[in-house]
Amino acid sequence: MNYETLNDAQLWKMIASDDRGAFGYCFKVYSKDLFKYGQKFTGSREVIEDVIQDVYLGIWNKRKTTQISSSLKFYLFTAFRREIIRRLSSFRKQESIDQFSSALLKESSYLDGVVKKQFINESNEKLHKAINLLTERQREAVYLRYFVELNYDEIAELMNVQIPSLYNLIFKSIKVLKDSMTEKVQSKTK
């Protein structure tokens, strides 16, 4: 069976009807993105892998009763985010989720890793500095929009923000990046 030709609703229908091949394909396609997203919360490979496995196990166990009609990717990211925050917050009960999430986002930035891989020359350093000007929430929003390719409705629900606020957050992020990069180019030409 060629699962690549199926949309998310069709793939989920096959999983719900006990197709282990479809389930394996789903794991293969989305687990790497979930792992990269998990690195925004913790540097612990073991915790991220455990949460991914638990999310997939939960999905398999509830496949008969769960309804996914459009975006399987969004469903997975939502379940993953909820579970990793729950798991990590149990380690640090004295901090609120927002404080904890903010601290974790500072520890490991996937965007920084992508920048280092894509740019080996001087522009890498400039872009890295520009990204560091973004807040943790801006980094997460930009990551989800441009690297994970979730739509605005999905990101707003995932990050628990209103859509107009999300538009504003991403717009300001892009403006900060653009201004920072333009400033560095202009200062170099003077």
Can you lay out the helices and strands and say which pair or pack?
Elements lengths: L7 H9 L3 H19 L6 H17 L10 H20 L5 H11 L2 H9 L3 H11 L3 H12 L4 H8 L3 H27 L1
Helix pairs in contact: 1-2, 2-3, 2-4, 3-4, 6-7, 7-10, 8-10, 9-10
CATH architecture of the largest domain: Orthogonal Bundle
- What is the averaged pLDDT score? 79
CATH top level of the largest domain is Mainly Alpha
Structural class: mainly alpha
- What's the total count of β strands? 0
Distance between the termini: 60 Å
Looking at the structure, the CATH topology of the largest domain is Rna Polymerase Sigma Factor, Chain: A
What is the global morphology?
A: globular
Number of domains: 2
Write the H/E string, N to C: HHHHHHHHHH
Major sheet attributes? none
Radius of gyration, whole Å: 19 Å
Instruction: Give the helix level as a range of percent.
Output: over 70%
- Count the DSSP helices: 10
Query: Low-confidence segments, ≥5 residues, pLDDT <50?
Result: 114-121
Strand fraction equals: under 5%
Give an account of the 3D structure.
The protein is mostly helical. It folds into 2 domains: 1-108, Rna Polymerase Sigma Factor, Chain: A; 110-190, Arc Repressor Mutant, subunit A (Orthogonal Bundle). 75% of the residues lie in helices and 0% in strands. It has helices at residues 8-16, 20-38, 45-61, 72-91, 97-107, 110-118, 122-132, 136-147, 152-159, 163-189. Mean pLDDT is 79; it is low at 114-121. Residues 125-174 form the RNA polymerase sigma factor 70 region 4 type domain. It comes from Echinicola jeungdonensis. Keywords: Sigma factor, Transcription, Transcription regulation.
